[in-house]
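Progress narrative, Year 2. Work on TIGR02588 family protein from Pseudoroseomonas ludipueritiae advanced from sequence curation to structure prediction during this period.
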Amino acid sequence: MRRPLLEWICAAIGAALVAATLVTVALQIPREDGAPPLLRVRATDVVAGEEGHLVRFTVTNASQATAAAVDIEGRLSEDGQVVETSRVTLDYAPRGSAARGGLWFTRDPACCSLSLRATGYQEP
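Result:
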């Protein structure tokens, strides 16, 4: 029995879609260049609440390496002395993307110098 032309056309379109999907997925596989994650932490805003002051931040990972269990530390300093520290661990900082979180402080960060940094991570 001979197959109709439309069936061959549909099969060719389906095969092309499957091939395009496989190529797209293969291109998304991270390249192992051995470079560590490049994590940058930036405060986005401060919200006053009943429990203190929440400093919301964004962590960007500009490298091709993924980071898990990313430790973030925030410090409030006054006249060169650290007056308060807050820490949080983010589960995941994917390669080439951003993750968000927050740190609670009892003092208002507006009165002090705020510094945020990533202090460590785990390879997934």
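The first strand starts at residue 39 and ends at 49. The CA atoms of residues 51 and 106 lie 7 Å apart.
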